[in-house]
Amino acid sequence: DTGVSQNPRHKITKRGQNVTFRCDPISEHNRLYWYRQTLGQGPEFLTYFQNEAQLEKSRLLSDRFSAERPKGSFSTLEIQRTEQGDSAMYLCASSQGTRSYEQYFGPGTRLTVT
Amino acid sequence: GQQLNQSPQSMFIQEGEDVSMNCTSSSIFNTWLWYKQDPGEGPVLLIALYKAGELTSNGRLTAQFGITRKDSFLNISASIPSDVGIYFCAGQGKETSGSRLTFGEGTQLTVNP
Fewest 10 Å CB contacts: which of A24, A114, B21, B113? Predict the structure, then answer.
């Protein structure tokens, strides 16, 4: 399967702990996106990368959140000092530059902060 | 910011019926996309639309990019049980930069066999 993969699929953590999620995009895609989805809502944009450059960040991405894509391939999203309000599905998507709006999503990482 | 309003919020239909749902915005969108999401999974891209008035099909699915560029429609013909899921419209608007997509809140479709 050459789709977008995300790990872990589920994460339960205690408030105040740090968590890190990984996303592996479709191999030939140069753009990678992170979205957050809460129950009953559509995905909300967090940030995106073109190759290794982080080009845009949403206001939703507080200073406790950091994303990296060090070699322009996989990406990590870290949340420091987690809060209960961080509980959500974190989705990663990738696209090819010429058709960048056609974003293909991974299965997501479900985060529960207790 | 830009918002997309989807309707209806939910639909309950019989297998074999046709389904229609739509998405509207108060501002112009340059690109419209439709996704389907199953529980616990990521959204799956169904159709992408790039030009006002464009009508595109993908099997039993047909979507249209509204002439005003402020709306889009998705039709599903002869529904089957595996059509169950949440359908999201998404768009890239004139007021947003880069490749960020704005999503609607979804239409939950239930198909009774």
Answer: B113
